[in-house]
Amino acid sequence: MELVQSDTGLTLQDAGLTPINDEAGGFQFLREDDGSLDPQAAIFQALGAASVSWQPSGVFDSVRACQIGNALLKELGLLERS
């Protein structure tokens, strides 16, 4: 799967992606239409989402980053799904 830059104006559907809620504070992995998700893409998506987890006050939201990290571990089969 090739990652698509957000400034291209493409929708998720145009890029062949479907958002799936992973119950991590609103974080969603973007999967292929067939439901698959390459592990490398999952890692990059989680890193990107966690890196922008800042509260309006300028404090890093470590709770959200942890939720995203746990969602990644579940996706990779390294943590049991609840």
Description:
With 82 residues, this protein is α+β, with helices and mostly antiparallel strands. It is 33% helix and 17% strand. It contains two helices and two strands; from the N terminus they run ββαα. It has helices spanning 39-51, 62-75; strands spanning 17-24, 27-32. Strands 1-2 form a two-stranded antiparallel sheet. The chain is globular.
Brief sketch in words of this structure:
The chain is of the alpha+beta class.
Strand order of the largest sheet: 1-2
Overall residue-averaged pLDDT value:
76
> How many angstroms does the end-to-end distance come to?
27 Å
> What's the count of strands?
2
Shape: globular
Q: Which sheet architecture does the biggest sheet show? A: 2 strands, antiparallel
Q: β content, as a range? A: 15-25%
**Helix share bin:** 25-40%
Uncertain spans, ≥5 residues at pLDDT below 50? Answer: 1-8, 17-22
| C-alpha-based Rg, rounded | 13 Å
Q: Helices and strands, in N-to-C order?
A: EEHH
Query: How many helices does DSSP assign?
Result: 2
